Amino acid sequence: MNEILTALWPVFALLCAGHIIRRMAFPGDGFWEPAERLIYFLLFPLLLVHKLSLADVGAVPVADVALAVALLLFAGTLVLLVIQRLKPLDGGSFTSVYQGGIRFNTYVGLAASAAIFGDSGVAIAAVIIAVMIPLLNLLCVLIFSLYTRKDAGYLSALWAILKNPLIIACFIGIFLNLSGIGLPWAVASVAGLASGMALPLALLAVGAGLNLTALRKAGGAVIYSSAVKLLLFPVVMLFICRLFIDSLEVAQVLLLFSALPTAPSAYVLARQLGGDATLMSAIITGQTLLSMLLMPIVLSILPSFL
């Protein structure tokens, strides 16, 4: 437990710091949106290409990881649909609960993987991300189409997935690694220096986006979305790993990702496709805060059952 807390403490400290400095209006509200674009389109892709081009990617069982991720997402979707059937919400609210129950904060996931498992953890996390992002987006677009009756645009969603900078970076990094091309030293040295900014700045930005006002006004939907995401998902992933995953480290990184809070990008999708954006903001905030308490507990207890 102490080792997990020690590894995760800097991650959660930066989340809190981001929220505090945003409340202090420093360095100004105009800073955060450009910073998020810099992280998403440049710094995070650089980090992924740099780490993956140097990591032992061949040691990651890609097929097993893909199967584990797919089973988790389909199981989570089934659980959330059953809950909606038993305790129905209006369509817009359910789409926010669904995103809260099934999306993963990749920034926190990569930071925690690096802190606990080092470069090998980052390589495993990158493979998880490469599988997870396309499947997640397709499932979310399908749910929006069914529950808001709004054309979510499958072709535009597919195009958004194909041009997602994180997906592109994962495939470039894996290609450079497996092909033996690698990164030239001049590029690698610059990428290593620049990508060092990615995780700290990303965590500050996630903290800056927390909305305590929306959380205070939210109801029980935040609770059951968080219970599914932060408690049920890790237990489901534990069973999946026991059945399909032989590597202990891979199983541990999969458990870590299953315990992550939902992603801030869910708010953008809720606003664009007719979901309940206010509820989505509350779920993002509530889960991020709860994960500070629950992630260390989950990651300390569940791996002992692998």
UniProtKB/TrEMBL annotation:
Pfam families: Mem_trans. Gene3D superfamilies: 1.20.1530.20. Belongs to the auxin efflux carrier (TC 2.A.69) family. This is AEC family transporter. One of its GO terms (cellular component) is plasma membrane. One of its GO terms (biological process) is transmembrane transport. It is a multi-pass membrane protein. The chain crosses the membrane at residues 6-26, 38-59, 65-83, 95-117, 123-147, 182-210, 222-245, 251-270, 282-302.
